[in-house]
Structure to design on (416 residues):
DNA sequence: CTTCAAAAGTTGAGTTGTTGCACTTATTGA
DNA sequence: TCAATAAGTGCAACAACTCAACTTTTGAAG
């Protein structure tokens, strides 16, 4: 969720070889940075897309070639986040359980959030204060949940429509959200996932 | 969810005494009817609000005085539905449990859906085929769930933030959705709520 | 090195959802 | 009967988004 430090894109694809792709990523980042800065300064509804395009020194058409709708400017890292989430499940160390992998992922991403705390809470406030962004974030969360459920089904060998997959996915993404309210988020996440793992173990291996 | 038969509004407020309110309800209904007709004929994205306003013989300004956004034209009965849902919980017969009241409500509304089957399935197809409507419906469902959870908390005396309330609300609204897939929806709903009630009973009265 | 096709960007005009404003008309309660 | 109030109108505007035609860059193949 938190914006990258500034312009320096540290994503899951750290080596975009060609110059072309580098430039493309650069303009995309320039647009996202300009948008976030303006939104934080004056509020989401007070800034128009034209103004953002101007600030990033591109045309509005270019802006919309990079971001399908205005809300997507705020959730720049949406795609990367989902990719990282699925990767955390699919490429987990040998022998690691699904809940354990998800806990790892939740902890590391939460740490990154606690890192730039000022930036992050300002970002959270912005979303919370803007209905359009709340709705968009909600639907995004749902898409991630669905994608995760499918990945879990593939990895666990369960039927894709087994409610267990959807439940695990739902919980795994809900726990970090709920943990934000706690005074010690890391502790809350760890304990939530401990509980989840034990339940998961007994459900998938009923003989225990 | 299913549209009213045609123009004849059979809502929870069957006696709008004043002429003013009757006229207002009439134009509102005229707009919703025109919109649904055009949407079903040609698809949601192929019909503009100006055209709908023309078809209902009102100005677009008037249209937006009745419906906050275009999507709301499709879910005309949103407010009424939520009101009926909450009423089913709050004004349930003395001694009836919450899950039982919710099951009753689910069964009666599902019967109404099975009634005008052709209309209803066309409506469902329209929503399923239009991303904007899917998103809107999803958020609507969430609002209803939140409202129901609060009503459940008030009626049951549980703490408003008790996860049990949210869970019951979630399940009570999810069960009918899942039941649509079954060949015998009534059976599916009844059994789902039976299970829910027994679980609910033991959770609220652990000595049983 | 040249050339060529695809990708990225620009420009400008258009469509569509949505709102503001000033105004008319109808209903209602006093 | 008389104002207060609410519904509705017409028009103009704004903002988000799209489209079509055109220029520039870039990657690679001849």
């Amino acid at each position: 969720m938190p914006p990258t430090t500034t312009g320096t894109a540290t994503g899951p694809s750290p080596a975009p070889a060609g110059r072309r792709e580098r430039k493309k990523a650069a303009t995309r980042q320039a647009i996202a940075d300009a948008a976030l800065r303006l939104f934080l300064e004056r509020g989401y509804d007070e800034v128009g897309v034209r103004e953002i395009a101007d600030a990033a020194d591109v045309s509005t058409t270019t802006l919309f070639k990079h971001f399908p709708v205005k809300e997507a400017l705020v959730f720049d890292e949406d795609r990367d986040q989902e990719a990282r989430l699925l990767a955390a499940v699919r490429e987990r160390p040998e022998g690691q359980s699904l809940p354990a992998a998800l806990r790892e992922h939740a902890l590391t991403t939460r740490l990154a959030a606690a890192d730039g705390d000022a930036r992050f809470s300002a970002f959270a406030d912005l979303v919370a204060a803007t209905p359009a962004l709340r709705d968009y974030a909600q639907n995004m969360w749902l898409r991630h949940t669905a994608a995760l459920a499918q990945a879990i089904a593939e990895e666990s060998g369960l039927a894709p429509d087994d409610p267990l997959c959807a439940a695990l996915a739902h919980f795994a993404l809900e726990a970090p959200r709920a943990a934000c309210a706690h005074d010690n988020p890391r502790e809350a996440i760890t304990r939530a996932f401990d509980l989840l793992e034990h339940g998961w173990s007994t459900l998938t291996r009923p003989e225990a």
Remarks:
- Chain B touches chain A through four residues (CB under 8 Å).
- The longest helix of chain B spans residues 131-156.
- Residues 78-204 of chain B form a domain with the Tetracycline Repressor; domain 2 fold (CATH 1.10.357.10).
- The two ends of chain B are 38 Å apart (CA to CA).
